[in-house]
Each structure stands twice: as C-alpha cells, then as structure tokens.
Amino acid sequence: GPNGALEATHPLALAPVTGPASNVDGFVRQFLRNLNYERGVPLSASSPNDQYFAFAMTVRDYLMARWLEDLRRQRVTQSKSVCYLSAEYLLGRQLDNNLLASGLTDIATEAMAQCGIDIEELRAQEVEPGLGNGGLGRLAACFIDSLATMSVPNIGYGIRYEYGIFRQTFVDGQQVEQPDAWLELGSPWEFPHPEFAQTISFGGHTETYDDEGVTRSRWVPSWNVRAVPYNYMVPGYLNGRVNTLRLWSAQATNSFDLRVFNSGDYEEAVRAQTYAENISKVLYPEDSTPQGKELRLQQQYFFVAASIHDFLDHMVADDFGLENLADRVIFQLNDTHPVIAVPELMRVLVDEKKLEWDAAWAITQKCFAYTCHTLLPEALEVWSVELLGRLLPRHLEIIYRINEEFLLEVRERFGDDEIRLRDMSIIGEFPERSVRMAYLATVAGAKVNGVAELHSQLLRDKVLPDFNEFFPGKFTNVTNGITPRRFIRLANPELSELITSALGTGWLTDLERLRGLESYAEDPDFRAAFREVKAANKRVLSDVLRARDGFEVSDGHMLDVMVKRLHEYKRQMLKLLHIVTVYEGIVSGRVDAASVQPRTFIFGAKAAPGYAMAKRIIHLINAVGSVVNADERVQGRLKVLFPQNYNVTLAERLIPAADLSEQISLAGKEASGTGNMKFALNGALTIGTDDGANVEIRQLVGDDNFFLFGMAEPEVEALWARGYKPAEFYQHDESLRRAMDLIASGAFSGGDRSVFEPVVSNLLYDDRFMVLADYASYIEAQAKVDAAHADEDAWTRSAILNVARCGFFSSDRSMRDYIDRIWHTPPAF
Ligand code: GPW
After folding, report:
1. Is-catalytic flag, 462?
2. Which parts of the chain span the membrane according to its record (predicted)?
3. Of the residues 39, 373, 606, 637, which is catalytic?
4. pLDDT band at 269 (very low <50, low <70, confident <90, very high)
5. Residue 223 phi, psi dihedral angles, 5° rounding
6. End-to-end CA distance of the chain
C-alpha cells in the first residue's frame, strides 16, 4: 500500500475498526476516554466546553466507521456522484442533528445523566456555523441532509469561512455588526486534511507554446495559495449513511512566502501571508446583491478550483476515461457564485489534459447544471472583464471562446439579428465590458432550473426567453424543500410525537404521509392536543426570548412572525404599516382596544451592512416597538418584539411557536422562499402574496386555509405599464395616510422628523416594490386573520390541514426531482 501501509485487501486494513458499544455504558466510557485523552482533563476539572467537545467527539466516534466505509465505497464503485458547489452552507447547530441521525439521543442523555452532566448545558455550548446569509445557504444545508438520508453519494463543496455571517446587535435600535468568531474555541465537527491540500493560482498572463507541432495555450500565474480541505460528517437519518461536506480554508504557500522572502522583506512576507489567508477569512454578508469585489471573485475561484481538482485527483479512477466524466460526476452550481468552475474545467481538459476544444466542451456541457435563485436583475452576477482578466487571464480567454462559438450558433439559427446577439452575448458591454455569469451558466449547463413553479416560468418567459427558445428542454423547475428532520423533528418534538401517535413512524422520511392527518383535523381531541403543542412551544419560546433578549411574551397572544433577511422586496415595511395602522387606530380612539385580537408581532432580520435603507427600516421597526410596547393604551393588545441576531438556532424556536406566517413579498420578486414551508409544516397559517412557493402552498392547503392578498404578477406588470404613482394610493386611502403621517411626524423618533423621512419619502415617491399599492388589500386580509383567529376550532383545523397537506415540501422530494430531471444518478448504494 501507499507508504508501506498494509494492502487494502489485508484484513487489518479492510474495514475501519468498529465504534464504541451502542449502549449507555459504551457511551460513558467513550465520553470519558475523549475527555481524558483528547481534552486532557479529568471529569472533575472539566469545563462545559471540554464536556461539549468530548461529547461531540463521542457522537462522532459512533459515526466514524460508517463515514470511512462510505468514502471507500464512493471510490470503489465509481458510480455517479453529485458534487454540490455552493459558496454558502447555513448549517445550524450540529449536535442534536447528529444525535438524531445516529439514533443516540436517548443513550447519550442517559449517559450524561450518569456523569452528572446537564445535556442542555452542553447543547448551549455549541456556536452555530453561520456560513451563509439566508435562504440560499440554508437550502444547501437541507439538500445535503436529504441526500445523505436518501443514500445518494454526494460531496458538498464550499468555503470554511473563519468568520460567518456577522452577529447582529442593536444599539439604540440600530444594527451594529460584530464579527462571528465561531472557531474561537475550535469545532469538534471538523477534520482538517492538510495532506490533501490543493494549490490554487491567480494572476499572471497567458502564452502560447509549441507542443510537438501543436500550438497550445497555457496560463503562467503570478501567485498562489494553498487550499486545505476540512471534512464534516453529513449523516443520513437512521440509515447508517454518512456523506461528506468539504470546506476549503486558504493558507499561504511556501513559494508565495519565498518570493517575497527573497526580496529580504520580512514584514512584507508576513503581509503576503495575511493576503493569502484573507481569501477564506469572512463570508460576504450581502444577500442577493453582488458587490463585484475582487476578494469575492478570489473566493469563488479558490473554492471551485480546489473542488474540481480534489474530485478529479481523488475520486475519479485513473482508468475511468475523461470522455466519460459525466458518468462519474455532476457539478450542481448553486446560483452563479461557483460558475467560474466552467472555464476552470475547460482549462483543465484543454490545457492540462490536452483534449481538443470540442471534446472538452462536450464533456463540460454534461458535467454542470445550474440553479438560479432570483429574478431581481440587480442580483445577477457580472464580473468586469478588467478584473476577471487580471485575476484569471486564461479563464477570460476561455470565456471569450465559449461566447464566440455560442454566438456563431445563434447566428446560424437566427441569422444576423444583431439585437438578439447583443442580448444573448455572455459578454455585456454596458456600463462596462463584463461577463454575465448567469448566461455563462445557462450556455454551459446541461440543465437550468428555477426554485418554484412561478419562478421557473418567469425565468423562461421574462429573464432568459432567448435562451429558452435556443435550448429547448434545457429549462426545468425544482421546487425547493426543507429537511423535516431539523425543522419538524428537532425543532418541534411535541408536534412530532403527536404526529407519530396518529400516523406511526415513517413519516419523517416519507413526508407525504402527513396526508393521513387530514381526517384528524375533524377530531376534537386531536385539535385540543394540537393546540396544547402550540401552547407548549410558545412557553419554550418565551423562556428562550427571556433568557436571550430579556423579552416577556404575553400569554394568549396570536404570534405573528416575519423572519427573513431585511430586503425592500420582502416588504417588512408593509408589515410595519399594518402595525402602525392598528396602533394609530387605538390611540386615536377610533378603534376600541378591547375589540382588537391580542397580537405579538415578532421580527427577525439582518440587513447587509452597506444597505442603508434596510438598516433604516430595522431602526424604524425597533422605534415603533419601543413606542408601542411602552404605551399603556395598547397594553395587553399589541406588542412588537425584534430579537437581535436571527439565526438558524432561533428559527428552530420561533417557527414552531408561530400562529401566523408573513410571506408578503411583491409578486414576482421572491424566487421561492423556504421559511414559508417551515411555518406551514409547523402549523402556522400563511398570510401571503401570490409569489414564489406561496403559490404552491396555497394550491396544496386550499384557499380556505391561506390568507391571500395583493396583486398577482401580471397585475404588477400591468400597473408598472400604466405608470405607478404611489402618492395617489397615499392620497386616496385615509388609513394609509394616517399611518404614514404618524411615522413622518416623528412620533417614533422623539419628535425628530428627519430620522425616518427617507423611509417615508421613498415609499411616497419611489416605492419600487409597490408597498402602497398592496396596502389596502393587506389590511383587509389582516382583518380576515383576526376574524378567523376568533374561532379557535376553525383556526386549529386549518393549521392541522396546513401540516397535513405540505408534505410535498420535504427536501427529500426536491432531491428526487433533481435526480429525475437533472442528475440522472443511478439508484443509491
Ligand atoms: F440572489 N436567495 C438567497 F439568487 O438567499 F443568489 N441569497 C441569494 O443570494 C440569492 C437567492 C440569489 C434565496 C431566494 O431569495 C429565495 O427566494 C429562495 O427561497 C432561496 O434563495 C433558496 O432558493
């Protein structure tokens, strides 16, 4: 074997040694061994962090044999693997998930009790890895959970950011960002493998050379970094399967140092090291708004180049035959962030493996598929030719050639239609020459998918219609999903128990079985039990918010929750106008407080640090909250809570306690949404627009169990076409006027009218997302919510039907769709 180790067929080398005994005694022994021999402390002197580490390591030890076996099998069988390329994985805490997946929860709980340790205290030690911004990153985490649970061979590739999404704090109601030092105390879940590091190059120039009579191109880069892989276990739910998440960390290379060392400048050498390590230093906190920053392109190329080389070097057998690469792997591009992988694979095949261009292109076009997650034009990534050419000169040449040949084909099909050619070119000319990454992905990908029916349709018809015409059959839909293991079983154990008591086990991996709950909606005992679950979840949330934020959650309130990134298109302002309207109605004496259903409004939202309007809206929500919560006249009726630093861990507590789910984006703007699915599956009713996956939720749960409001996408289009004048809505709607005037009056800013003036005038004179146009409809729908909530039994029936009818939104189903429509991977081993 390598390095003189035993051959793989030797009995001692064949299989990994088995893990600890699967009983309480086995767990205790392994835990103490880890505490003593890995942490180097006796139980009596161990800190909670020591205990957490030893505990996590023990869980790992149970999974390890399966993990090694699955890695081995992936190499031996050479059956097609899915490589998910994603710049973000918003994993959430790992401990409970890994306990659940390995079936160890009860044993581990008892084992800790025997050691005199409170397992809750251990749970609290874990810092969640926030290696993503929002929906896109969380989706990636749900997908890899489902693939492992479905025994599909998969490697998730991404970046091991040293700092994840910032920790949000409020100072005088305004967002202040703190670095997320999630690795400060180390992480027990990661396995560094410096021996499998890849060298990733940047800069320099290209040249042609004579290769035995053939003129070839090559890249002569000017600097490089080391990409060190860190492996994470991705255990399937109770199926003994463990897939791999491989995240890359940047380190300076020796040559990198040497070059500068030779100049004799020590300080410069250290600076150079810092420069290299900056690449994986921090997650960009912009969600859906690419900034075109050089470091960001470095991150993208860094992780996809490392991933492609890693897979080719270690996962593809030497005799596999590159021409068959698409039988071995599909690289799924999670939005455009990893699209620079396309020219990288071309460069490897043409420059390094010396394939003909056409052969290389044929392979490449089969190895990639592209998922688009947006419709916002400003969210579509473009890289200036100047920057791309400076950082990756050979890749730019390759992109030019791909574009040239593509436009030739377009010309053949459509003739010299210069407008169409300009519109379809991968290279845009205005405002500067740049590479349109979504176009590159569409041309290169075997398939292109949107993330909900409406989104995929708009993608075909509005965003990329020329491409849809040119590539018939390339466009498809896969509606997003969420993992029921984390978002039902772990987040809502009481509901899970209730479901199991009705349906038996099996539903967690076959979520359509929730249909069986429909008949229980008519059962008064079941409804009472369901209500009790919701009440218990509210008590849990109340404890969490008291400890975390010092909030008091009032009993008997409807919990009305809007949690998602702060973005104008998501329309937190619409929610706020509703709150101000109700508040103003009561304090002006026009509405009797006693007639208002008691409600607590909960917001959770981070704003991109450079997004001034989003930050102002956060400030305004907090300001309204302070005034409303302090006003005696609405005591016991209205409350506004905005816990800081909304993250996966908090979502797991908020969602199961919610009564009402706010999904109120302007129709045609939210690609899918996934929070909407999580709420419905936890028995909240949705108030929502006809947007993203809301459309499919409403179709499934039925109009009677969903509060629809607002314009549909064609009406939005029509209003733009007619000419949208928000001020007219303001003038013609007294209730809207009162709410806006109250904000403008300085009532929420100590009389200072200037603080929120930009928010108000933005709505009055611009209102890109038509908040004012949908206001009346929203207020009307909220009145229906109040009326419906007054009938407890009817509300509960609807809530149960939401759970029963949303099994479709399991990410297991999403994965089945990807397999059937895009990946065509064989049945799992
Ligand atoms: F702009 N999404 C996200 F499309 O969370 F790239 N971040 C992003 O940068 C983008 C999309 C991008 C979200 C969508 O906004 C949401 O509608 C969708 O449910 C989610 O991605 C998962 O598909």
Report:
1. no
2. none
3. 373
4. confident
5. -155, 160
6. 26
Q: Does residue 606 have an active-site annotation?
A: no
Catalytic site residue 674?
Answer: yes
Is position 208 annotated as part of the catalytic site? no
CB 561 within 8 A of CB 607: no
- Ligand 1 atom 2 nearest Cα: 136
- CA-nearest of 446, 426, 445, 442 to 382 is 426
The Å distance, Cα 444 to ligand 1 centre, comes to: 21
Q: Is 88 in the pocket of ligand 1 (CB under 6 A)?
A: no
**374: CA distance to ligand 1 center in Å?**
6
Query: Is 415 buried (19+), middle (13-18) or exposed (0-12) by CB count in 10 A?
Result: exposed
pLDDT in tens, 2-28: 567 777 677 677 666 788 999 999 999
Stated as kind and residue range, the H or E segment containing 713 is helix 713-722
pLDDT, tens only, 740-798: 999 999 999 999 999 999 999 999 999 999 999 999 999 999 999 999 999 999 999 99
**Range 486-809 classified under CATH 3.40.50.2000:** yes
Burial 596-624 (b: 16+ CB within 10 A, else e): bbbbbbbbbbbbbeebeebbbbbbbbbbb
Query: Which residue, judged by its Cα, is nearest atom 10 of ligand 1?
Result: 288
Instruction: Specify the ligand 1 atom closest to the Cα of 673.
Output: 19
Give the Å distances, CA to CA, from 155 to 241, 245, 689: 13, 6, 36
> How far apart are the CA of 581 and the centre of ligand 1, in A?
31
State if residue 622 touches ligand 1 by the CB under 6 angstroms criterion: no
* Residue 465 CB neighbours (<10 A): 12
ipTM above 0.90, yes or no: yes
Ligand 1 centroid vs 670 CA: distance in angstroms? 8
- Taking the C-alpha atoms of residue 320 and residue 301, their distance in angstroms, rounded to an integer, is 26
Q: How many CB atoms lie within 10 A of CB 503?
A: 16
Measured from the Cα of 671, ligand 1's closest atom is: 17
Q: Which of 25, 26, 22, 44 is nearest to 35 (CA)?
A: 44
373 is a catalytic site residue: yes
Tell me if 371 CB under 6 Å of ligand 1.
no
Out of 2.40.50.140, 2.60.40.10, 3.40.50.2000, 1.10.150.20, select the CATH number for domain 78-93+128-479+817-823.
Answer: 3.40.50.2000
Active site annotation includes 353: no
Domain with CATH 3.40.50.2000 in the chain: 78-93+128-479+817-823, 486-809
The answer to whether 730 and 776 have CB atoms below 8 angstroms apart is: no
pLDDT band at 259 (very low <50, low <70, confident <90, very high): low
Are 652 and 663 contacting, i.e. CB atoms less than 8 angstroms apart?
no
Cα 186 to the center of its chain, rounded Å: 23
